[in-house]
Design brief:
By secondary structure, this protein is an alpha+beta fold. The chain has a domain of 116 residues: Orthogonal Bundle (434 Repressor (Amino-terminal Domain)), CATH 1.10.260. Helix content is 40%, strand content 22%. It is built from 6 helices and 5 strands, in the order βββααααααββ. Strands 1, 2, 3, 4 and 5 form a 5-stranded mixed β-sheet that branches. Helix 1 packs across helix 2 and helix 5 packs antiparallel against helix 6. The radius of gyration is 17 Å and the shape is globular. It binds zinc ion. Zinc ion binds next to loops.
Length: 167
């Protein structure tokens, strides 16, 4: 197979992938099919929408405060504009913009963001969010890595780990 962009032949392999293209610098997928060409390394995944949704579920169950990138990720994966998401959260869109750019939303808003996303995406296990959020109370650090690890079937297991900023 040839890449349409660089016209090089793809090289396929299996490995771990730093899933920055999701918009999350702290997202990783382990043991996944990769394609390499002149453009760089990319994921070879058919059901990308499902992977992005599973990553969204991992974000709303993160045992730590949401980061700006994660808030933006949830909004975008819900298919909402900043204005629409702000309206659902009962804040004005400048407030939302500050959150997406790194200002901590505070605990009540952090929880609400998760639940608005869950409602919008019809997430099947909303009660889990409470348990995850309880852990978030102890964890002050926002830079927690989210690792998707292939499980039986099409799903992923999620592993959270402290991220080294320097990489
Ligand atoms: Zn290419």
């Amino acid at each position: 197979m040839k890449c349409n962009a660089c016209e090089q032949i793809y090289v396929e392999s299996t490995g771990d992938y730093h899933f920055k293209s999701s918009g999350l610098d702290n997202a990783y997928i382990e043991d996944v099919r990769l394609i390499k060409c002149g453009c760089g390394v990319g994921l070879k995944i058919k059901a990308m929408g499902s992977v992005l949704d599973q990553l969204g579920n991992a974000v709303i169950n993160k045992p730590g405060p949401l980061s700006g990138q994660e808030i933006r990720y949830l909004r975008k994966n819900a298919g909402l504009s900043a204005r629409e998401f702000a309206r659902l959260l009962e804040v004005n869109h400048t407030t939302l913009s500050k959150w997406e750019n790194g200002r901590a939303p505070g605990r009540a808003s952090d929880l609400l963001i998760r639940f608005v996303y869950a409602a919008w995406k019809e997430y099947q296990h909303p009660k889990r969010i409470f348990d995850s959020f309880k852990q978030a109370r102890k964890q002050k650090k926002r830079n927690i890595g989210i690792k998707l690890i292939p499980a039986a079937g099409e799903g992923f297991e999620v592993e959270y780990a402290a991220v080294d900023n320097h990489e």
